[in-house]
């Protein structure tokens, strides 16, 4: 029986662990060094607007948290952006996932203008390139492009290994480095995939009452290959 179609048993769901987002916890590698350097250069920014681009779990939110700690920036979204757009500036802002639907273009235009006039610093994060953002107002995108854009790229072997160590550490799990090496050599090369695999291995190990071993890692890789989407990994029979 396929582990993805069996409903006889479910893996434990998210236990609510909290990842650490301190500056000292950020893993700097070749793919994110420029973005990290930009964030930690605050307040010595020549441009008030910065854009971070990268796939899910690539470190954008972690860098945004570091920026918030350094600059006392406020995180805003579609529901609260109008309050800042209608003000006189002053508060530094973080707008995450700006490429998702729901942001009022008029409000976004105003906070971008405020940043251009030096009234606030503005950090935007997105998964897609600006030309693919769902905005019809050309002035919004032209102002976005005036600031520097930093891309968080895929990780190399060493960086991926460090990412696994951090992700397991966030869950207070110790794993043999040989298991991590086994994963890095066989997985899709992205931080998002590492996060998915760590969550899956944690749940597999809990269901089996086992430590995270090479056998657990192999099973997680096999299940991940079979799953068409991460959501399919929520209902599995770990013993089938």
UniProtKB/TrEMBL annotation:
Coiled coil: none
Region (Disordered): 1-24
InterPro entries: P-loop_NTPase
Basic and acidic residues composition bias: residue spans: 15-24
Entry protein name: Chromosomal replication initiator protein DnaA domain-containing protein
């Amino acid at each position: 029986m396929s582990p993805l179609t069996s409903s006889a048993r479910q893996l434990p769901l998210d236990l609510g662990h909290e990842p650490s987002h301190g500056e000292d916890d950020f893993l700097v590698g070749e793919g994110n060094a420029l973005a990290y350097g930009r964030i930690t250069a605050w307040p010595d920014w020549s441009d008030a607007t910065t854009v971070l681009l990268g796939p899910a779990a690539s470190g954008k939110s972690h860098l945004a948290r570091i920026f918030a700690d350094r600059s006392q920036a406020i995180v805003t979204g579609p529901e609260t952006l109008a309050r800042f757009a209608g003000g006189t500036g002053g508060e530094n802002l973080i707008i995450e996932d700006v490429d998702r639907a729901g942001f009022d273009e008029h409000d976004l235009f105003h906070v971008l203008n405020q940043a251009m006039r030096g009234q606030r610093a503005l950090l935007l994060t997105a998964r897609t390139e600006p030309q693919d953002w769902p905005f019809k107002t050309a002035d919004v995108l032209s102002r976005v492009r005036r600031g520097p854009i930093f891309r968080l790229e895929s990780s190399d072997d060493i960086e991926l290994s460090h990412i696994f160590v951090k992700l397991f550490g966030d869950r207070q799990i110790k794993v043999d480095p040989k298991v991590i090496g086994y994963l890095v050599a066989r997985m899709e090369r992205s931080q998002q995939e590492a996060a998915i695999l760590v969550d899956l291995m944690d749940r597999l190990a809990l269901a089996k009452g086992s430590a995270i071993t090479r056998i657990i890692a192999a099973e997680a890789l096999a299940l991940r290959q079979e799953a068409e989407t991460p959501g399919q990994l929520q209902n599995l029979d770990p013993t089938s």
